[in-house]
Structures are given as C-alpha cells and as structure tokens.
C-alpha cells in the first residue's frame, strides 16, 4: 500500500484556504505572525532577503500579494515542492520596469535538504527577452539549487564546455548567460521556425552542473486560468551531490483561492 502523503504543517484544505488569503494584499496573518516573520527575515535562519517565515513556510511579496512555498512528504520523503501564487500578483505586474528579482523565496527546509529545489527567484519581463519566440510578456520562475550566497556568486566567465552527462537531448546547448543566474538551455522545439511560446521549461547551468530549473510562462497563459503541465527533462547527472530531481511541473489554477499552485513532483534520485 502506498503510504499517505502528508503536507508539512498544512493539510491540503488548509493550503487552499491560505491560498485564498494570499489572493489579497491584506492576508490573514496575525500581527504576531508578521512580527515573527520580520524578525526571522532579519537574520540567522537562512531566509532569502525580504522574505518572511510563517511557521516554517517561507513567504514573500510579489506585486502586493503574498506568495508562499510548501512541501509535501510521503513516509518522510519529499513528494511535491511548490509555491502558491495569487492571480492578483500576476495581474498587477507593471507595464514596464527594470529587469530584477521581483521575488526571492526559499523553499521549506525539507525541500532544501532532499531535493534540487532550494530557492525561487521570479523575474517579470514586461517586454519579454530573446531568443525568439520569448518576446511576449512573461514570468521567469527560476528554482535554484544552493544557498543564497552561492546563487549570487554565479558569473559568466567560465568558457568550458559542459559535459554531455548533464545535458538533455531535447534542449539546446547552454548559451545565454546572466550573472546571478547561469547559462540557459532552451528547449530545442522553441528554437524551430514558427514556434509559439505559451509555457516552457528551461534548464540552467554553471560550474559544470545544473543550477536551476525554470518554468517560463506567458502572462496571457496565466490570466487565461488554464492548468499547465511541463515535463522536466532528466539528464544522466546533475553534476552535484546525490539529490532528488523532479521530472514534472504543474501549474494548477484554483478558482476558489484565485491563484496558482506551481508544483514539482515525480522526483527521482540523481547522482
């Protein structure tokens, strides 16, 4: 018999209720919760800059609404890792603005300890970016492996070729590099003439290893409130220590809470 899956600190109904609270800039956190979160974000517990901690479920602000991360376990092993993102934060994205990290949010401790998914950094691209066909307004959701300091230290001066063992057959050779992110490996299908972008899964590399898994989703796709499913291509190796690697990402829209759950699952051991 398959062991029951337990959501760390929250049942699934509680997650949906909390997601509903997150749909408004005025969430239902108590003053004590907010004070404790502010103290935690000020130091000592490994939180990403600017995020809050509420009962070990990290939270942060994205365009005036609360985003939170969560993890579920099955017999003590991570089954899913995800974030709850209110639709309001997507709809309220500005029409223009600088390229920056609009949200930095740690994953819960169990996810950081057991999986590739340690921290989320969201970038809003009001005018898209290259290569074609990524010119549509969209969100980059970089799920990184490593600590905040390790991610910040990523740079683009390493010109070594990446070993075949960490690459996948359905993604192009890593190319575009951004400091603090890494080299991007675009899905090969997206680079074909006439390709249309709505949602894609990009892999990121640095220092001979995979450093991020990135769902990249058009704003129009998210505002249509449709569910999304993306396969996460699995290489032979991640180039790092043994860990759990997700092979699927789903964007699940919940009409009751008015938001998405972006959730990784189907984890497999790697390295």
Q: What does this entry look like structurally?
A:
This protein has 6 helices and 15 strands. It is of the alpha+beta class. It has a domain at 84-270. The strands form 2 sheets. Strands 1, 2, 3, 4, 5, 13, 14 and 15 form an 8-stranded antiparallel beta sheet that branches. A hairpin with a 2-residue loop joins strand 11 (199-206) and strand 12 (209-218). The longest helix is centred in the first third of the chain and has 11 residues, at 12-22. The chain starts with a strand and ends with a strand.
* Biggest beta sheet attributes: 8 strands, antiparallel
- Number-wise, the strands total 15
Task: Tell me the number of helical segments per DSSP (H or I, 4 or more residues long).
Answer: 6
Percent range of helical residues: 10-25%
Q: Report the mean per-residue pLDDT as an integer.
A: 85
List the topology elements.
Elements: E1 5-7, H1 12-22, H2 31-41, E2 52-54, E3 57-62, E4 65-74, E5 77-86, H3 87-91, E6 103-106, H4 109-114, E7 119-125, E8 138-144, H5 148-152, E9 177-178, E10 182-185, E11 199-206, E12 209-218, H6 219-223, E13 228-231, E14 243-254, E15 259-270
Antiparallel strand pairs: 1-4, 2-3, 3-4, 4-5, 5-15, 6-7, 7-8, 8-12, 9-10, 10-11, 11-12, 13-14, 14-15
Features:
271 residues, alpha+beta, eight-stranded antiparallel beta sheet, seven-stranded antiparallel beta sheet, 6 helices, 15 strands, 38% strand, globular
Short description:
The protein has helices at 12-22, 31-41, 87-91, 109-114, 148-152, 219-223, and strands spanning 5-7, 52-54, 57-62, 65-74, 77-86, 103-106, 119-125, 138-144, 177-178, 182-185, 199-206, 209-218, 228-231, 243-254, 259-270.
